[in-house]
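INFO  loader      accepted 1 record
INFO  loader      residues=66
INFO  predictor   begin
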Amino acid sequence: MNDTMQTQANFQDADGFYEQLINAHAGLSAEQSELLNHRLILILANQIGDAAVLRECVEAAQDLPH
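INFO  predictor   done
INFO  writer      dumping tokens
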């Protein structure tokens, strides 16, 4: 188990994932889209699993400019 956040590009198909993500939101209301994002975040967090890595990820997201 990796105990630090991955900071290097780690996508196998970043463009494909982005397209899939955009398509998943197509036709959804704002509320449905937000719920999809919440569920996806929890599913991906479960895949990571490591509490320290998840904490680093949350902190990194908070540090991004608005």
